[in-house]
Amino acid sequence: MKYKELYDFGALALMEAGIAEASLDARLLLEFICHTNRNDLLVHGDKEVLKEEQDIYVNYIERRKAHEPLQHITGEQEFMGLVFEVNENVLVPRQDTEVLVEEAMRCLHDGMSVLDMCTGSGCILLSLLKYSNGCKGVGADISPEAVATAKRNAQKSQIAEVSFVESDLFESVEGRYDIIVSNPPYISTGEISDLMEEVKVYEPVLALDGGEDGLFFYRKIIEEAPEYLNGGGYLFFEIGYDQAGAVTDEMKKAGYKEVTAVKDYAGLDRVVYGYMS
């Protein structure tokens, strides 16, 4: 089968299965298997695809038809210009989260120490360390599988000054840090059943469920973080679009200074941060 014919097969199959970005996903899966790029569809559409590559593509299309996330099929996702391993044990890194990294980088100076709470794949911490000089970091997560994934990503990123620890929030964390970043679970328990199938079926509930009102982990981290922050240290959160007011209030009540909310590129509240004097 020719390249364009195989793409057309995949795009139609995904469209009929109700996949929102059927054409894009069909193309990305084909490019991943054949090690090609988007120009090949235009310039080399009549190229014959190897039988073994055809078979893999058909299998991948079937998996995507079942709403398995594209990133779980390929096993990777780009974030902050880096490629991270992802799987069913960690959240797929999203572009919105890059706003958290960018805001934290404004306060990150050479030689600082960073703690990433609820680290997942490690993409936030590893991006901060990759784009800074002489900084070191620790990532904490309650999931041993997530910690193992983050360690593999650290090795792949060739970042040495980092460690990951299995920890129920701060339970196994030691030391003090200049910056604490966190993208904690923030979906309210009752809303999880309403999430798109790719999320509620395939992503870890541990990384989604933020309790009855979605704020459980914010309250815990806000309360405990001062014991792990150096003087003047910052606490950065990613938040849900409707949580800026509540998280800001909690941080102010706990004594954080200059608490600020930052919007993402869609104009939605995405980050809240402040410092502890």
Helix/strand layout:
Elements: H1 3-16, H2 22-34, H3 38-43, H4 51-65, H5 70-74, E1 76-79, E2 82-85, H6 98-107, E3 113-117, H7 123-130, E4 136-141, H8 144-157, E5 162-166, E6 177-182, H9 197-200, H10 216-224, E7 229-238, H11 244-253, E8 257-263, E9 269-276
Parallel strand pairs: 3-4, 3-6, 4-5, 6-7
Antiparallel strand pairs: 1-2, 7-9, 8-9
Description of the molecule:
The chain contains eleven helices and nine strands. With 277 residues, it is α/β, with parallel strands linked by helices. It has two domains: 3-66; 87-276, Rossmann fold. α1 crosses α2. The chain is elongated. The N and C termini lie far apart (65 Å).
Q: Stretches where pLDDT falls below 50 for ≥5 residues?
A: none
User: What's the pLDDT, averaged over the residues?
Assistant: 96
Examine the coordinates and then state which fold CATH places here, giving the name of the CATH topology of the largest domain: Rossmann fold
Q: Mind telling me which CATH architecture of the largest domain this is?
A: 3-Layer(aba) Sandwich
Roughly how much helix do the residues carry, as a percent range? 25-40%
Distance between the termini: 65 Å
Shape: elongated
Q: What is the count of structural domains?
A: 2
- Could you give the count of β-strands? 9
Rg estimate, integer Å: 20 Å
Order of helices and strands: HHHHHEEHEHEHEEHHEHEE
Q: What about the largest sheet?
A: 7 strands, mixed
Report the CATH C-level class of the largest domain.
Answer: Alpha Beta
- Please give the order of strands in the largest beta sheet: 5-4-3-6-7-9-8
Q: State the CATH superfamily name of the largest domain.
A: Vaccinia Virus protein VP39
Sheet/helix structural class: alpha/beta
InterPro entries: DNA_methylase_N6_adenine_CS, HemK-like, N5-glutamine_MTase, PrmC_N, RF_methyltr_PrmC, SAM-dependent_MTases_sf, Small_mtfrase_dom
Domain Release factor glutamine methyltransferase N-terminal: 5-75
Domain Methyltransferase small: 99-191
Protein name: Release factor glutamine methyltransferase
